[in-house]
Design goal:
Layout: H1 12-29, E1 33-38, E2 43-48, H2 55-75, E3 83-87, E4 92-98, E5 102-108, H3 114-149, H4 157-164
Antiparallel strand pairs: 1-2, 1-5, 3-4, 4-5
Helix pairs in contact: 1-3
Length: 165
């Protein structure tokens, strides 16, 4: 299960980096669809054949799946199951937790293999984790600099009381 975290602000630069990494993973793994989902089930980015998919439902069900298997893991004494795999008649789903922050979903068919997907996901996960570390650092820097330069930073509770009395 993903641990608690403050919500990150997504900047365009990082979103572009994430999109490029998903496109690269899609090509190199010969997959159909790639999704990146946050721990709350919100779709962050997608790549591939998404036109006929309910991306909102897929994102939220994936997060629920991770939460449910996190509960199973705890019952048997594991911290989490960081990789899940579902095999279907035509399509397969590979789900992995990236950097403890987000969920990477790869949907693939017979044009690819589980081995190839796992290999490519491992590399992409490292690259994505780096992007999210940069994003967390940038968000932290923004929040610390904006709080000190906020026009409301100097207002005290006494100032507010005096205003309304």
């Amino acid at each position: 299960m993903l641990g608690p975290q403050s919500s990150l602000v997504m900047y365009d630069e990082e979103f572009q980096r994430i999109s490029q990494l998903l496109e690269k993973l899609l090509r190199e793994s010969n997959s159909k669809v790639i999704f990146l989902v946050d721990k709350n089930g919100q779709l962050i980015a997608a790549s591939g054949e998404t036109a006929n998919l309910d991306t909102t439902s897929l994102a939220s069900l994936t997060a629920g799946n991770i939460a449910a298997t996190g509960g199973l893991a705890k019952l048997i004494g594991e911290k989490e199951f960081s990789i899940l795999f579902h095999e279907g008649e035509k399509d397969n789903i590979h789900i992995s937790i990236v950097g403890g922050r987000v969920i990477l979903v790869v949907i693939f068919d017979q044009r690819s293999s589980l081995g190839l997907v796992r290999l490519r996901v491992k590399k992409a996960s490292n690259d994505l984790a780096t992007v999210f570390e940069d994003l967390a650092r940038r968000s932290q820097e923004q929040s610390s600099s904006s709080s000190s330069s906020s026009p409301f930073a100097e207002i005290t509770d006494d100032d507010i009381d005096n205003l309304f009395n």
